[in-house]
Write a structure and sequence with these properties.
By secondary structure, the chain is α+β, with helices and mostly antiparallel strands. It has a domain of 81 residues: Roll (Ubiquitin-like (UB roll)), CATH 3.10.20. Helices cover 13% and strands 25% of the residues. The chain has 3 helices and 7 strands, in the order E-E-H-E-E-E-E-E-H-H. Strands 2-1-7-4-3 form a 5-stranded mixed sheet. The chain has a two-stranded antiparallel sheet with strand order 5-6. The longest helix is centred in the last third of the chain and has 16 residues. The radius of gyration is 47 Å and the shape is elongated.
Amino acid sequence: MNFKVVVSDSKTRKAYQKEVEQAASGLIGKKIGDKVSGSFIGLEGYELEIRGGSDKNGFPMRADVEGTARKKLLLTRGVGMKKTKGGLRRRKSVRGNTVSQDIAQINTIVVKQGSKSLDSVFGKAEKPKEKKPEEPKKETPKEEKKAEPKKEAPKEEKPKEEPKAEKAEAKMAVKKVEEVPKEEPKKEESKPKEEKK
């Protein structure tokens, strides 16, 4: 079985991945936080620090769990736990902090730079951005717009305003009409019918 070693460079903010045989790597028995020479993946002069990893089933390694075994812990935060709300605790499976044969991926970070750049070692040389050739623009014949004579809009006549005195008189008349009480029709008093003899 092989390790997938992920090398992260904090200066360029890039990560590189390479597969290495477990026996040839010399990583078995190392713990999270240990510093390792980068020569096992072809990084001569580089020094790497182990920051974490995950086993073949995807369970993450935790720095505060000793050993190589997988354990179920009651977690509130940290590696292996996504905290969604305060006070939440969950029982999660995590792997110990020591690299064993069950580990599939190891995450490392560059501590000391070597002479060669990481791009050249991993074969990811930056390609210069190629400019796309510009396509010639198709010229379409433009139709000439005929100048139309401007039409004058007919002027609207405003209604003549009544003099203020007439307006006041009209308002007073309306008030007087409203104040006059309406006369109710008088009810005829019903006379008792005379009985025929």
